[in-house]
Specification:
The chain is an alpha/beta fold and 234 residues long. 43% of the residues lie in helices and 15% in strands. Helix 1 packs across helix 10 and helix 5 packs across helix 7.
């Protein structure tokens, strides 16, 4: 039975699309209303706070308790919403994301406009395990399409924003349950970075998924949805 007033806001990473949440949303629907908005920069100058402000404006007339979930860049937008809307956001889930800079992405952002097939394969190799890529399942095919069709300017903007993003001084002010989900093999939002983030949050629970890469959680939507739902009230 759906608890009245509960609402899930699921924010995707870059250069993915809201449809990455489709299977997870199906499992969460019985626990509350689910929204999966676009959560990417609209131009080359936008960053996480800009995307969060746009979402906040869109949610102005929406009622109910809000449980915000974000993956990667979307996790940083989710963090911005939790900071900007402390009376509305009742829980936060950050999946393979971080609250500190990842400077190496500055160079990646400069290279994005010229990315070719080899570069896109390198991105996929960071997102998935070799066995996942060899199986070429629907999630891998979806991720490949996103990389091939992405608008390169907003994608580069998101990478620049991740390179410099730092809210480590403000995460301790988030006074709601926070679930952090790290992947053991993630090369960007490493378990070390997410463990440090957990230590800054007053009500955090950290899960480290063994033998998992950046996109691995989406391969198991039912298990991921259960972990997200359980984190709402821990």
């Amino acid at each position: 039975m759906r608890p009245s007033g509960d609402r899930w806001l699921l924010l995707h990473g870059t250069p993915l699309t809201p449809s990455v949440w489709t299977d997870i949303a199906a499992h969460l629907q019985h626990t509350g209303a689910v929204q999966c908005p676009w959560a990417t920069p609209r131009n080359a100058s936008e960053a996480q706070p800009d995307v969060a402000r746009r979402l906040r404006d869109d949610l102005h007339d929406v009622t109910g308790n809000m449980h915000v979930v974000g993956h990667s860049f979307g996790g940083q937008v989710a963090l911005e919403l939790a900071l900007a809307m402390p009376r509305r956001v009742r829980s936060l889930t950050s999946l393979c994301s971080r609250d500190t800079p990842f400077p190496a992405f500055a160079a990646a952002a400069r290279a994005v406009p010229g990315y070719g097939p080899a570069d896109l394969d390198a991105v996929l190799s960071r997102w998935f395990r070799p066995a996942d890529l060899a199986a070429e399942g629907s999630l891998v095919r979806y991720a490949r399409r996103c990389l091939l069709t992405a608008d390169r300017a907003p994608w580069a903007a998101a990478l620049r924003a991740i390179a410099s993003y730092d809210r480590s001084d403000r995460t301790p002010t988030i006074d709601v349950p926070v679930t952090l989900i790290a992947a053991e093999l993630d090369q960007v939002s490493t378990p070390t970075a997410m463990t440090a983030m957990a230590g800054r949050l007053p009500h955090a629970r950290l899960h480290v998924l063994p033998d998992a890469a950046h996109m691995s959680p989406f391969l198991h939507p039912e298990a991921l949805a259960q972990m997200i739902a359980e984190g709402r009230g821990h």
